[in-house]
UniProtKB/TrEMBL annotation:
<dbReference type="Pfam" id="PF11716">
    <property type="entry name" value="MDMPI_N"/>
</dbReference>
<dbReference type="InterPro" id="IPR017517">
    <property type="entry name" value="Maleyloyr_isom"/>
</dbReference>
<dbReference type="GO" id="GO:0046872">
    <property type="term" value="F:metal ion binding"/>
</dbReference>
<protein>
    <submittedName>
        <fullName>TIGR03086 family metal-binding protein</fullName>
    </submittedName>
</protein>
<dbReference type="InterPro" id="IPR034660">
    <property type="entry name" value="DinB/YfiT-like"/>
</dbReference>
<dbReference type="InterPro" id="IPR024344">
    <property type="entry name" value="MDMPI_metal-binding"/>
</dbReference>
<feature type="domain" description="Mycothiol-dependent maleylpyruvate isomerase metal-binding">
    <location>
        <begin position="18"/>
        <end position="134"/>
    </location>
</feature>
<dbReference type="InterPro" id="IPR017520">
    <property type="entry name" value="CHP03086"/>
</dbReference>
């Protein structure tokens, strides 16, 4: 799972910053809204996003095997602030020299993977999760074309085996992709999201 063009760490940074931008406007009444992640409220989605940031930051620094880093926060009374802290942490970890050449232990996979590959996993997660939040709030998504193209390239390489999709896994089963789909729509559908059910503002 590789990308071409801009460095994967820079692509990831853009996606994470966009996720921060779309989370920022959420207000108290928004946190219990349903999201494109079936069964998850926005509060639960942001708790998951927070845990993943801390987990990947720990993995970048050689502590990915420690399960505590991957747990969702118990206190989600101020989701926006909690999420901001997590995003800042992972961006700092990924910005360290040589992160792409390190090995990341990712408990979900049960193996260590090259840093560049691990950052690619994180990157596509935050393209998708930024969209999840924007769709939940009825907000626009502002990701440059080259980021969406890179996200699609990664999404096309995510295994589609039904045994690894669905409840308990990172992505739902892949959906059919209509001919002529834009890169974001294709990536979302490949990863089990239906943008027609959760349209963003034009």
């Amino acid at each position: 799972m590789t990308t071409t063009g801009p460095d994967i760490v820079e692509l990831d940074r853009i996606a994470v910053l966009e996720s921060l931008r779309v989370v920022e406007p959420a207000r108290e009444a928004d946190w219990e809204r349903d999201t494109p992640c079936a069964g998850w409220t926005l509060r639960r989605l942001v708790a998951h996003m927070t845990a993943q940031h801390y987990g990947f930051a720990a993995a970048a620094r050689g502590a990915g095997h420690e399960e505590a880093y991957w747990r969702e926060p118990e206190d989600m009374s101020d989701p926006g602030r909690t999420y901001r802290g997590a995003a800042t942490t992972v961006l700092a970890a990924f910005a360290e020299p040589g992160v792409g050449e390190r090995e990341f232990v990712l408990p979900e996979l049960g193996v260590a993977v090259p840093g560049r590959l691990a950052v690619g996993f994180h990157f596509i997660d935050y393209v998708v999760h930024a969209w999840d939040v924007a769709a939940t709030l009825g907000a626009g998504l502002d990701l440059p074309g080259h980021v969406l193209d890179a996200g699609l390239a990664v999404a096309r390489r995510v295994p589609t085996d039904p045994a690894g999709r669905g409840a308990g896994f990172a992505f739902a089963p892949a959906l059919d992709v209509p001919a002529g789909s834009e890169p974001l729509e294709e990536a979302l559908r490949l990863l089990g999201r239906d943008p027609k059910k959760w349209p963003l503002p034009s």
